[in-house]
């Protein structure tokens, strides 16, 4: 099975790295040093860079990495500096032994792309452990539709988000979905992982489906919670999602 390695960056980013015979593939290198250090320590070259969206904490290291490894190809959305191959929804491409499919997921930003290969989803700032990205550019409607596409992937897919936000997200999940045993179980396990200095990620999609309130907004418990929080009639999963997203912003 594919297994990406987390390279911690900044306060809470992960740069995911997949060793490949043709050179390692890294995702969202917001800074270059963690990647350069890893490659030097393991005697590897850099083969490819995948970029999910334009934010600096996902792109800031690309220039330095390209300078060190000029042959590394950068895959990403239009409008990001140093991208060699611009991708759109439905594209697919090969890095080493792996074929990735591009899933456009507007919401956090309008240019956001996720990368899927059977067994692994690089979800950037769209789908987090027990949460989802803030709506900086897109609408709740767009993000809801984007998450619905990710939620429809095979449930045994491992999800690799770009940030370690899981515990804060689970605290919110406990507030809006308090009777869900999957939330309390996950909070216990992931608290232990963090106490041991381990990542909570990747996480399997079936775990997300059971405990992420943003993927469960149409469940009766979440509809009731968003109704109570908002004070207005909430009639469907999309309206409930929009309330949960606003609620989380001020949580
Ligand atoms: Zn971002």
Short description, anyone?
Thiolesterase that catalyzes the hydrolysis of S-D-lactoyl-glutathione to form glutathione and D-lactic acid. By secondary structure, the chain is of the alpha/beta class. The protein has 9 helices and 14 strands.
Plain-language structure description:
The model has no long low-confidence stretch (mean pLDDT 97). The strands form 3 sheets. The protein has a 6-stranded mixed sheet, with helices on one face. A 6-stranded mixed sheet has the order 7-8-9-10-13-14. 36% of the residues lie in helices and 23% in strands. The protein has 9 helices and 14 strands. It has 251 residues and is α/β, with parallel strands linked by helices. The radius of gyration is 18 Å and the shape is globular. The N and C termini lie far apart (37 Å). It has a single domain, classed as Ribonuclease Z/Hydroxyacylglutathione hydrolase-like (Metallo-beta-lactamase, Chain A, 4-Layer Sandwich), CATH 3.60.15. Zinc ion is lined by residues 53, 55, 108, 125.
Oligomer: single chain
Distance between the termini: 37 Å
What's the mean pLDDT score?
Answer: 97
Query: Roughly what fraction of the amino acids lie in strands?
Result: 15-25%
Full CATH superfamily name? Ribonuclease Z/Hydroxyacylglutathione hydrolase-like
Tally the helices: what do you get? 9
Which class in CATH terms?
A: Alpha Beta
Strand order of the largest sheet: 1-2-3-4-5-6
Evaluate the radius of gyration.
18 Å
- Helix content percent band: 25-40%
Question: Into how many domains do the coordinates divide?
Answer: 1
CATH topology value = Metallo-beta-lactamase, Chain A
Distinct compounds present: zinc ion
Number of strands: 14
SS-based structural class? alpha/beta
Protein name: Hydroxyacylglutathione hydrolase
Binding site for Zn(2+) 2: 57-58, 125, 163
Pfam families: HAGH_C (PF16123), Lactamase_B (PF00753)
EC number: 3.1.2.6
């Amino acid at each position: 099975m594919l297994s990406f390695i987390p390279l911690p960056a900044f306060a809470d980013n992960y740069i995911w790295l997949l060793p490949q015979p043709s050179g390692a593939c890294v995702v969202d290198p917001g800074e270059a040093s963690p990647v350069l250090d890893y490659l030097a320590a393991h005697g590897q070259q850099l083969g490819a860079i995948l970029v999910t969206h334009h934010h600096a904490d996902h792109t800031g290291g690309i220039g330095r990495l390209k300078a060190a490894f000029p042959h590394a190809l950068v895959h990403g959305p239009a409008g990001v500096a140093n991208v060699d191959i611009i991708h759109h929804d439905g594209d697919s491409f090969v890095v080493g032994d792996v074929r990735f499919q591009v899933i456009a997921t507007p919401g956090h930003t309008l240019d956001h792309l996720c990368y899927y290969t059977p067994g692994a989803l690089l979800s950037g700032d769209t789908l987090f452990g027990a949460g989802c990205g803030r709506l900086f550019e897109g609408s709740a409607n767009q993000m809801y539709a984007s998450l619905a596409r990710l939620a429809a992937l095979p449930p045994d897919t491992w999800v690799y988000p770009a940030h370690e936000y899981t515990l804060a997200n689970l605290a919110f999940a406990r507030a809006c979905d308090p009777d869900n045993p999957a939330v309390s179980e996950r909070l216990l396990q992931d608290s232990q992982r963090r106490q041991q200095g381990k990542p909570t990620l990747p996480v399997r999609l079936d775990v997300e489906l059971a405990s992420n309130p943003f993927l469960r907004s149409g469940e009766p418990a979440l509809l009731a919670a968003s109704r109570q929080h908002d004070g207005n009639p909430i009639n469907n999963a999309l309206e409930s999602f929009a309330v949960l997203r606003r609620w989380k912003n001020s949580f």
